Amino acid sequence: MDTGVKFSTWGHWSEEDSKPAHSQFQFVFGGNRKLKAFMGWDGIVVLDDSVDIIDMCREYMLRVKNASCGQCFPCRLGSDEMSAILQRICDGYGRDGDIERLKELAHVMKDTSKCGIGETTPRPLLDALNHYRDLFESAIAEGKRRFQGSYLYKITAPCTEACPSHLDIPGYIENIRLGYYDKSLEVVRNDCPLPGTIGRVCVRPCESQCRRALVDEAIAIKTLKRFAADYEIAHQQEPRFTLPPKKQGRVAVIGAGPAGLSCAFYLGRLGYQSTIFEALPEPGGMAAVGIPDYRLPRQLLRHEVELIEKTGAEIRYNTRVGQDISVEQIKNEGYRAIFVGVGAHEPSSMRCEGEEAGYEGFMTGVEYLRRIALGEKPLSGKKAVVVGGGNVAMDCVRSSLRLGFKEVNLVYRRTLSEMPADQVEIEEAQEEGVIFNFQIQPVRILAENGKVRALECLRMQMGQPDASGRRRPEPIKDSNFEIECEAIIPAIGQTCSVDLVLPEERGIELTRWKTIEVDDYTFRTGQQRIFGGGDCATGPASLIEALNAGKKAAKYINQFLDQNTCYSEDDDHMEKLLSLMKVYHPNEKVPFRGFEKRARQKALDPDLRIKSFDEVEAGLTEPQAIREASRCLRCYRIGLAAL
């Protein structure tokens, strides 16, 4: 398959070169082991002449053979025979005709296989046979056993690579296609403990790198995950995961948000009991009190948390660390390690006159959504104004309609194309009647008798790009105007207050954004028993990023408790290496045309859905899910690193 990408993408040689030109690219694994060569879907990178290309090809095709699903015989039989030939050559028993047979099999496998493994894995072998043919010929003629090198390998896919938690997306979709919904969830839960939640509110970075979109439309990856989770609940099935014998030593987790819940879940699957200290009266953190029920039904989230509790997690609600209990007290209770997973619950300032005046009718978006989630009606009136352009702002405007506001204005200082909110959320807000006001900057809150009466705004125009690469909004002189309202809700971002949780912890460094410094791989802080991840380490990020942080931290907490040390592992270095190799190519020429659009979820009518907080979108039916899963191109990629 022609990916449309030249060898120079990886910096080793061009099609016309007879020998590789070494790349300036360098990558170092743990233990100061340098990458010597890389073999993958776009060819070979050679960084060190000491690499035995023939032995590397042997190892690569062995991995390909083991990874082949066996559903089409060119890949199943071809990879098996090629692996056997290369093994024979490396054992010193190569034969005349082996090189031509390898090339023949590689071309057939590349041209006729049905999925990414069969389509892409022969390419680097063909590169090796073309550019190092003399080495293969000498090896066959000499008939000597070759020394086996040191290698690491990893299987990925464009969608998997885009997912912060690196879910095996083709794997769980394939199981749905085959009707193995329980196995599909088993695959998902290897990297995501909240499939029903993520299946509703994920921001879908995976779909932005789905190769099917180069044909017609991206696979409905998020919705398929939801289907499998909903099917399990509807059919009262028990999750497919077994727990090991309990290990000695408990772990404390601060925060029952996505990061903390994920850490507790994977600790449980490793045999550790954990206690989660949560300030709120229910679990989920910002997922519970920051995402309205019409997008994420609370009962669904509670059900998934109950499954996490069954792995050995205890949750202590209404317990604010730093206020009701200190980190020192937690240590004294005998916990051998602590994970800090505090979310970003504090609002950012919109720097508007009157913001600190305490006017009735003014409330930050974070507080507004939290109080709605706890069953209150925090604001009332006929007209509301929400300031912001992200998903929190979308949740605020849509919730305002459901609370009875007749006119809801959204004020955003940039243009529609620059709004960071999910496109689906924008479209549904527009359908529901939200009035969008673009290139508008709030400047002053106007009030009478201590109550909000209007928001004074200034019109903006787009200037030169700022540090983020987006064009900077600039004010238009004398363009002030007012939007009458009884409620003003700024939703322009959140900050973390982890300094209140760890006020005097030595060895833990805080950034100027009040986030904690953690190791990029192990998530350990400067204090060896304390780990951290999620918003408190990165600042406000996506739910799936928080889940990944909790998962990775659990792995290294286990390593620390088992070995009394903490060091980055090869698998995480391979993940980083693959991210640098760019698995997805947006200009790739996919060699066939699409013929089927993606499945669409049914949604409540806008006039009906704004009357309650009932879930807006339905899931896929079983026939829809199977048909949608069958659209997946199974774009697996195999990467092999020589050390």
Attribute tags:
37% helix, four-stranded antiparallel sheet, 4 domains, 643 residues, FAD/NAD(P)-binding domain, de novo design (two linked rop proteins), alpha/beta
Q: Could you characterize what this model shows?
A:
It is a single chain. With 643 residues, the chain is α/β, with parallel strands linked by helices. The chain folds into four domains: 147 residues, Up-down Bundle (de novo design (two linked rop proteins)); 113 residues, Fumarate Reductase Iron-sulfur Protein, Chain B, domain 2 (Orthogonal Bundle); 169 residues, 3-Layer(bba) Sandwich (FAD/NAD(P)-binding domain), CATH 3.50.50; 145 residues, FAD/NAD(P)-binding domain (3-Layer(bba) Sandwich). It contains 24 helices and 21 strands. Strands 8-7-6-9-20 form a five-stranded parallel beta sheet. The chain has a four-stranded antiparallel beta sheet with strand order 4-3-21-5, sandwiched between helices. A four-stranded parallel beta sheet has the order 13-12-11-18, covered by helices on one side. Helix 17 links the parallel strand 11 and strand 12. Helix 1 packs antiparallel against helix 5, helix 2 runs antiparallel to helix 3 and helix 3 runs antiparallel to helix 5. The longest helix has 21 residues. The radius of gyration is 27 Å and the shape is globular.
What's the gist of this structure?
With 643 residues, the protein is of the alpha/beta class.
